[in-house]
Design brief:
The strands form seven sheets. This protein has a five-stranded parallel beta sheet with strand order 3-2-1-7-19. It is globular and about 60 Å long. The relative contact order is 0.12. Strand 5 and strand 6 form a beta hairpin. It is an alpha/beta fold.
Length: 409
């Protein structure tokens, strides 16, 4: 067959297949997934799916969708290599699949740690449904868990585990949680929330050894401190799955390098999603983002390009994370802001942080303030910055009125 072949059936790959049909693409579409599970939403893995034994995966699209739209979905099928000369992909089972256009949407894999004890059976990562099932099966035996890494996935899982009565220790090598993902004040608000729920934080610390007794995890060693634990969750980030592109001679640098139309340096090969390094217009440099929004919006833009309407990818990035009772939402990408404005709710809890650079609003972080997040996304995307007094007051209604007036004018 020919037509479009998509390697990867995560958020990016499935959205592209759907958007191609919506845009009127009439030729063959084949979607190849190394994951044996039917394509599923990944954010719930660290929360609702893992917390409830009976919880099912949330499908990205129903099974009937693929049949009705003539999209051939192959599960559990790994691609070994891309043959650019013959315009085929060669699968692990030996099948060679021809393409007119090839899209790499392979996503990321969990970054591995290398230390004594890292390969013990009670040490988990959390990137796929298979990972989540393995950890979910072990939940009844969990009494004390060490989470290595203070990023979104680790903190979401830490909050879930703590709510189940598990003693959780989070180890973070940096002096604060969430690295460069959030402002210091938001990171501190998240830390305070976790501490109140019983999670113990160990900042500016690193694990030297995962200790074992009788072949099972019994704790981790932090310098002079030993933390007893029966399980370990590793959440130290992800690496782009760009080996296929590299082996095919395509440019890679922290991901598959593409232009603003998601094209690689082969005119018949494109790439989208978490595995991609692309020119981000708001930062004016190449970046790689791990975001459901970024993956799906890139897919929508590429579908237009592939159906005859060349479309640059210009969407404003936004992110979210549910850490226990805290819903953290971020609109935009922070790039060395020169002013931060914090607002608080009626109880004195941090509600939002506005990032400004040269007087322009570039980012808004919110905690349990969904309406403010939605407003900030529109304001930033349209290049509107409210008066400083409005930002300081934190009056979302007044900001919305000012924004609407500006749009009308």
């Amino acid at each position: 067959m020919s037509g479009v072949v998509i390697i990867g059936a995560g958020h990016a790959g499935v959205q592209l297949a759907a958007s191609l049909r919506e845009a009127g693409y009439g030729s063959d579409i084949r979607l190849l997934s190394g994951d044996p599970d039917f394509p599923y939403h990944k954010p719930p893995l660290s929360k609702s799916f893992m917390a409830t034994k009976e919880a099912a995966l949330q499908p990205l699209r129903g099974e009937a969708f693929f049949a009705q739209n003539n999209i051939e979905l192959s599960l559990g099928l790994d691609v070994d290599r891309i043959d650019r000369a013959s315009k085929t992909v060669v699968c692990a089972d030996g099948e060679a699949i021809a393409y007119d256009k090839l899209i790499i949407a392979t996503g990321t894999s969990a970054r591995k740690i290398t230390m004594p004890g890292a390969d013990l059976p009670q040490v988990f990562a959390l990137r796929t449904a298979s990972d989540a099932r393995a950890m979910r099966d072990a939940l009844p035996a969990m009494k004390s868990v060490v989470v290595i890494g203070g990023g979104f996935i680790g903190l979401e899982a830490a909050a879930m585990l703590s709510a189940r009565g598990v003693q959780v220790d989070v180890i973070e090598v940096a002096p604060r949680l969430l690295g460069r993902a959030t402002s210091e004040s938001v990171a501190q608000a998240v830390a305070d929330h976790l501490i109140k729920t019983g999670v113990r934080l160990h900042l500016s610390q690193s694990v030297e050894t995962i200790a074992a007794q009788d072949g099972a995890v019994c704790g981790v060693q932090l310098g002079d401190t030993f933390l007893p634990a029966d399980h370990v969750l590793v959440g130290v980030g992800a690496v782009p799955m760009d080996q296929l592109a590299r082996d095919a001679g395509l440019s890679t640098e922290n991901g598959v390098v593409v232009d603003d139309h998601m094209a690689t340096d082969d005119p018949d090969i494109f790439a989208i999603g978490d595995c991609v390094s692309f020119p981000q217009i708001h930062l004016e440099r190449q970046v790689r983002l791990e975001s459901v929004q970024n993956a799906t919006d890139q897919a929508r833009a590429l579908a237009l390009t592939l159906t005859g309407s060349p479309t640059r990818y210009t969407a404003l990035p936004w992110f979210w994370s549910d850490i226990g009772a805290l819903k953290l939402q971020i609109a935009g990408l922070s790039d060395a802001p020169d002013q931060l404005i914090e607002t608080f709710d009626k109880d004195g809890a941090l509600k939002s942080v506005y990032h400004l650079k040269h007087g322009k609003l570039i980012v808004c972080e919110t905690l349990n303030s969904a309406g403010e997040h939605m407003l900030s996304r529109r304001m930033i995307a349209d290049g509107f910055t409210p008066d400083i007094d409005l930002l300081v007051d934190g009056d979302a209604r007044a900001m919305k009125l000012a924004y609407q007036d500006a749009v009308k004018g």
